[in-house]
Write a structure and sequence with these properties.
Belongs to the GPN-loop GTPase family. It comes from uncultured euryarchaeote Alv-FOS1. It is built from twelve helices and seven strands. Strands 3-2-4-1-5-6-7 form a seven-stranded parallel β-sheet, sandwiched between helices. The radius of gyration is 19 Å and the shape is globular. 53% of the residues lie in helices and 13% in strands.
């Protein structure tokens, strides 16, 4: 086992689409990869998972057993996942795969902010767990939205204390000038600060600046990797980031 990648991010940020595309890229480059769906509430997926938590934990069953609506059932199901870690890990290990990609719940809070999830990452990922935080371009294209995503990413990092990478999804949907702005903000704090000041209404400017300063002082920002699932763009950079975290930068053996 080389790496366990847990894909997290806000709803609509492209987690499942990224998971499908990254597995496609890995297979094309002859890297043995397994996908695990950890979202019991997923209606449909853009890939066929090798392992699917819905096979052992159904949202409908949780609703029926606990007398809950869909939202409450998703919260309970997120905690009940911990009861199936032995089974999930046994099945994952049976593949003897170098890479495992875990597609997490659609709503960020159902994975990042449940006590069971830290246990899941520790148990399934062991010492080879890494987080991939997805930046939704619809939010990232404004300075305040970009800083909000930085704050969310930092919060997830502090929840799990694992290596992590920040990924900008769906870049093929962005105009060139918008993508250039996002790239500049991700590489130059001064550019981001200036854009944030210019973008902030007077009454919120001080708050936004203080949030920015807190993030800057914590030095939590990592390189933002732009990706496009449609064009299979950016995935080599993600693979390289995984190498650097777990393979000391050496080219990992292909199966």
């Amino acid at each position: 086992m080389i790496a366990n990648l847990f894909v997290v991010g806000p709803a609509g940020s492209g987690k499942s689409t990224f998971t499908a595309a990254f597995r496609e890229w890995m297979i094309k480059n002859e890297y043995d990869t397994v996908i695990v769906n950890l979202d019991p509430g997923a209606d449909s997926l853009p890939y066929t998972p090798d392992l699917d938590v819905r096979d052992v934990l159904s949202l409908e069953d949780v609703m029926s057993e606990y007398g809950l609506g869909p939202n409450g059932a998703q919260v309970v199901a997120a905690d009940l996942l911990a009861n199936y870690v032995d089974e999930i890990k046994r099945d994952v290990d049976s593949y003897e795969s170098d890479y495992v990609i875990y597609d997490t719940a659609g709503q960020l809070e159902l994975f990042a902010f449940r006590a069971a999830s830290t246990f899941l990452v520790d148990y399934l990922g062991e010492k080879r767990a890494m987080l991939a935080f997805m930046f939704d371009p619809a939010l990232a294209k404004t300075p305040s939205g970009f800083v909000s995503l930085l704050l969310l990413s930092a919060t997830v990092h502090f929840r799990f204390y694992r290596p992590y990478i920040n990924i900008l999804s769906k870049v093929d949907l962005l105009e060139d000038d918008v993508l250039e702005n996002i790239a500049a903000w991700s590489e130059n704090w001064d550019r981001l600060y200036g854009a944030l000041i210019e973008d902030s209404p007077g009454m919120y400017r001080e708050l936004n600046v203080e949030v920015f300063k807190a993030l800057e002082s914590m030095d939590v920002f990592k390189k933002l990797i732009p990706t496009s699932a449609r064009m299979l763009y950016g995935y080599e950079d993600i693979y390289t980031a995984i190498q650097m975290a777990f393979g000391a930068g050496e080219d990992l053996e292909k199966r």
